[in-house]
Amino acid sequence: MALVRLICCGFAGPVASIVTNALRDIKSLQLEELGEKFRELGEPSYRSRQIADWLYKRRVESFENMTDLPHELRRRLAKLFGFDRLDVVRVLGSRDTTRKFLFRLGDGNLIESVLIPASPALYGQKSDRRTICISTQVGCAYGCKFCASGLEGFSRNLRENEIVDQIITAERESGEKIDNIVFMGMGEPLANLQNVMRAIRIINAPWGLGIGARHITVSTSGLAPQIRKLADEPLQIRLAVSLHGATDEVRNQIMPINRRYNVETLLSACDYYVARKKQRLTFEYILIAGVNDSDEQAHILAKHAHRLSAKVNLIPYNTVEGLEWSRPSRNRQEKFLSILREHGVAATLRYEKGHDINAACGQLRLQTKREDVASPSRRRKNRQDVRVTI
């Protein structure tokens, strides 16, 4: 704890390297890896199931609380593995019951998660689902021009335990069971594919969080080779492609990744995914006034959707302070939706969720970091993990 406090108070250098080399978190291990470790320790293999039950069913936060393990084994485990948790810095509550969490990691970095209330227009799921939008990186390297996540660049990938802990912590704080996961928070999930897949296996496994693969959606801004790799994974997880522009001209303007993997390259990778998975994917499409909301873009988007039998989820832009973009009028949004439906495309216009709490990716983290710079007293307050509820 002393090391964490030093970093949170602004120290870096050697202390940061010590934290980086800390013990591997126990929640980063798969069940078979736990079993192998216990075999090395000369312990029976059933110990791995006991550990998993304590971690993901009973949600204990120390080895000492695992009371059906021998005391000597608990002591040995504490020397071999870390037992991290996310610190809650701020919780913002929206009028529509959307809640945004700002978490601090062990090295002092900040990440966000958003707990989204049930909605009939959310990814085609049943209306009683509780969805969490989770992060996979600290910052983002892909620089989408409308997004706050990458405004201060990329720091690092999240480890698998840091991904899973967002769900566990949000459930603990909200007192609600989460049963739908979307990897659409800070960062590009497919740029951290190995850790994301390891986290998904824990999330999906009966010994883990037990959430069905079809209730797990991974989003990408367009990393075509990684889409193909994801297609070859055995789990039937869902794919959402953050398209946000139907042509190279528009995507080049707002999404730099398109210069590496253009629209046709991206669609070809999606063809492969759909053929392998035998399931529909979703095009996420943020509507930005005067940029991608024209009738022409709607007609071309409809062609892409037909090619892949894809659903389209239209999202009015959430304004980000310091960026020039704005959302179209309600009439413009409805017109865009009507064109898609005239072409027979399964399309929804997402109800506003969290607009009053700046729920778009990276906004709360960016706001908090700027407040810390502007106000030393506010920085001290945030570093004491004071929760602010609106």
Quick gist of this model?
It contains 14 helices and twelve strands.
Adjacency order of strands in the biggest sheet: 1-2-3-4-7-8-9-10-11-12
Low-confidence stretches: 1-20, 120-126, 379-390
Rounded radius of gyration (Å): 22 Å
Secondary structure class reads: alpha/beta
Q: Supply the CATH superfamily name of the largest domain.
A: Aldolase class I
Q: Which range does the strand content fall in?
A: 15-25%
Strand tally, please?
Answer: 12
User: Major sheet, described briefly?
Assistant: 10 strands, mixed
Which class of the largest domain in CATH terms? Alpha Beta
**What helical percentage do the residues reach?**
25-40%
CATH-defined architecture of the largest domain: Alpha-Beta Barrel
Number of helices: 14
The ordered string of helix (H) and strand (E) elements is HHHHHEEEEEEHEHEHEHHEHEHEHH
Mean pLDDT: 86
